[in-house]
Structures are given as C-alpha cells and as structure tokens.
Recover the amino acids of this structure.
C-alpha cells in the first residue's frame, strides 16, 4: 500500500500544497485545481553547490568576486535591450507568447547567429523533429549554422547530453513537453513543470550555462501552469501583438539582471524576425493627415520614449445601453475619461457608443497619455482635429486637473526628433528651455478642450 506521506496535492492556480485532495482549494477557492504529486525526499540534496556557488559555505558579500559575469550579446539590439543588455551567465530566461507569434523563430535565429560567432549552443526541441527544425532553419537562412540540435523530451537525458557537450547556451522548446520519469503526471502537468524547471535552474546556476525556456500561454495570456514557474526564473518576457500583424513586441515583466518593462520591437518578414530601429514611426500614420479622433501621444517603455497614435470613435446609439470598447488601454480608465468630459468639459456623450484604441496593437498603461485619449474622444465627437504636427502629453486627475508626468524631457526630445512642432503639456511640467518645439500649457481639462475648439481644424461630421 502507498504510504500516507508519499504523495501530496498542489493547487495549479495558486501553488498551495495540501496533504489530502479536495474539490475546492482551501487557499484560493478554485475548484478542481488540486493535482497529485510525489513528496520530495528531504534527504536528497538538490540545492545550489559547486565552485560557482562557493560550495554552499557562507561568505561575506564583500569577499565574493564577480569575475566572469560579462553578458553575452545576442547580436540582436532589440533582444539585448529587452534582456537588459544581453544574456547574463547562469541566467534562466522564460519566453512566452501566443502560438505562431515568433518565440521559436526568435530563439533559433539568435542561437544560429551566436553559433556563427563561436559560441557553443544546444537547441533542444520537444515539439518538432530534426527534419522540421532543419526546414525552418532553411526558411530563416541559418541552415549552415554550427548550432547543436537535440530532439528529446526526457529531462534526465537532456541534462546528461548537456553536461557532456557543455554548451554556453541551452534552449528548451518547450518546457511543457519535458518530463521526468520519476514523477507522476503527464508532461506539462503542475508537478512536471515545477520539478523540471527546478532541475534546469540548478543546472544553470551550478554550471553557468545560460538557459532559455519557451513556454506556452493560456487563453488568459499567462504561462501555462502555476505562477510559481515565473518566480523560479530570472527573466520573464512575453510577446505582445496580433500574430497576424507584421510587428511583434517583446516585453519583460521580470528581470533580475536589468530594468523591467523594457520592450523590443520586431518585424516579422519572410526571413524571420528583424529589429525595428525606430519603433515610433511604425505606430504613427505616415500620411500626416489630421483627422478628428486621432491624437498623437508619447509613452515611456523602459528606457525609451515611443510615440503612438490614439484613435477614438463616438457614435450616437439607438440602443438602451451605450457601448464602451477599449483596445490597448484599460477600459475602466476610459469610463473615467467620459465622466470627466461630462462633468468638467461639458461634453455629454452618455447616450453614444465610444470606441478607443491604440494604433498598431500597442498596450499602454502610462497615465501620461490620459489627456490625449480625452481630446481624441472630444475631437471625434465635435468633428475637430488638432493643428498639424501636434502631440499631447498629460495625466488627468479626478478633479479635472492636468497633472505632470515623469520623464517629460525624454518625451519632448523624442517628439522634436520626429519633426513635431507643437506639444500640449501640463502647466507644472518641467521642460528643458533649449527645446525648439512650441509648448502650450494647460492647467485644467476644460482649458485644453477650449484650445481644441478655438485652434483646431473643423471638419464636417457625417451623421
């Protein structure tokens, strides 16, 4: 008979561990989320050891030498930016995204390029055969690379080959296909994911081998499996954007070796993913035609300023309940903007459908773009567009005031570099006096709306 303490149950939603199975997790309340796994043998040491970790002996922080920690460049400037300057030795990186968005393409291109530069890399494919990977490499133009390929899903054999080959970079594509023979459950289950990732983390830290894990995502956009997987790795990067769109955005949400919220912008071509040198231009309308409901703003993503176009559509509805649809921005913030426009701007649009979106598939969480969205809604409702080459920056408070935002100088500099002539800013914004761009300052929302009505270009609105 199985001993009572040989198995336990872990919640696939929150990671809580219980001794007995239950239909409902006692911690988070999720139903049918408890999965059985084997209890870890406490006598077996699986921690960090070896010379790189000082043999597990406590040392003074001042005595530890950080030699040999130089980052490896991927030869892809956007990928390097996302990772915080390159791949750190011994790091464990998790890359997630929707199917077909370019995860395997980016990694295969990167490894092939680094292999050409003399860096030993091992690509482990658990989803494709060797012939399939070869065909994909031919399509990407990297089939003549010295990249090492291993088609295997058994983790013990993968680590055995990796220890024999001693690569500088190891890629697992994907982590959901790898399994350990001594654990119950199928590949991709909670116990398999957790234990396989732990073993790879120990291997990476003890040997200094850079390990990249490719992970599937659920319909909610999260890495498949418990969130504990994200806590175990050093860097987590997600691909954003529609896979049917030619542009892809790789965003870091966790990085122990660099700043978070850095993004890399790529373009999907017939030869794979290529870096976009000037991301601001791809999010702006090249026709430069000013239309009601279109306002340009600027956001800060990591260490870079990116200009983008905000679009709004206001249309009278005959239904009882008006629609509020937001794409690329928080729908709750859209509701706040409509309330501010009604109370302080004298723009009653409660009986109209309102649609707001960010062009190009970009997702914005920056409050510095509040004023731009509000003016886009007003402009489309009244049929008025801003003067040509105008950019809008500012945060809206609940009292109708326009508040200053962070890194205003960086935003103004990027707008000036791209040829914008006018910029609308909060009254209290601090800007370098040497800038040549025309600055217009407003303290309250109604003042900015009045400027739009007086200085904007009136266009006929067809009903």
């Amino acid at each position: 008979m199985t001993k009572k303490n040989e198995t336990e149950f872990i919640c696939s939603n929150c990671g809580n561990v219980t001794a007995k199975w239950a239909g409902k997790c006692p911690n988070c309340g999720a139903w049918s989320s408890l999965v059985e796994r084997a209890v870890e043998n406490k006598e077996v040491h699986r921690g960090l050891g070896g010379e790189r970790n000082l043999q597990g002996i406590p040392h003074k922080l001042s005595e530890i030498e950080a030699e040999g920690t130089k980052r490896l460049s991927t030869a892809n400037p956007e990928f390097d930016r996302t990772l915080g300057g390159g791949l750190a030795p011994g790091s464990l990186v998790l890359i997630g995204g929707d199917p077909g968005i370019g995860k395997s393409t980016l990694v295969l291109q990167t490894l092939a390029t680094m292999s050409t530069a003399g860096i030993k890399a091992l690509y482990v494919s658990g989803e494709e055969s060797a012939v399939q990977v070869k065909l994909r490499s031919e399509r990407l133009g990297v089939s003549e690379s010295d990249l090492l390929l291993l088609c295997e899903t058994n983790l013990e054999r993968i680590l055995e080959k990796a220890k024999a080959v001693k690569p500088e970079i190891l890629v697992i594509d994907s982590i959901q296909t790898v399994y350990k023979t001594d654990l119950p459950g199928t590949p991709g289950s909670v116990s398999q994911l957790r234990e396989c990732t732990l073993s790879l983390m120990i291997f990476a830290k003890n040997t200094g081998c850079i390990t990249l894990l490719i992970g599937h995502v659920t319909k909610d956009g999260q890495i498949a499996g418990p969130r504990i997987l994200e806590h175990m790795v050093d860097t987590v990067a997600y691909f954003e954007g529609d896979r049917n769109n030619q542009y892809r955005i790789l965003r870091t949400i966790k990085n122990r070796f660099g700043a978070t919220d850095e993004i890399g912008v790529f373009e999907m071509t017939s030869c794979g993913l290529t870096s976009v040198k000037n991301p601001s231009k791809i999010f702006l309308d090249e026709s430069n035609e000013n239309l009601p409901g279109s306002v340009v703003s600027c956001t800060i993503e990591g260490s870079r300023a990116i200009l983008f176009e905000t679009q709004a559509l206001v249309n009278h509805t005959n239904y009882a309940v008006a629609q509020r649809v937001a794409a690329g921005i928080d729908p709750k913030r859209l509701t706040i903007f409509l309330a501010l426009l009604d109370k302080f701007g004298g723009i009653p649009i409660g009986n109209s459908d309102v649609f707001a979106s960010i062009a190009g598939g970009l997702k914005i969480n920056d409050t510095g773009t509040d004023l731009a969205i509000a003016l886009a809604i007003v402009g489309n409702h009244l049929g008025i567009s801003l003067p040509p080459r105008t950019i809008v920056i500012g945060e809206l408070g609940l009292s109708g005031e326009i508040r200053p935002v962070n890194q205003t100088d960086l935003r103004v500099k990027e707008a000036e570099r791209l040829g914008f002539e006018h910029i609308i800013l909060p009254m209290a914004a601090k800007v370098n006096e040497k800038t040549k761009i025309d600055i217009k300052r407003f303290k309250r929302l109604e003042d900015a709306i009045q400027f739009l009505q007086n200085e904007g270009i009136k266009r006929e609105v067809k009903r």
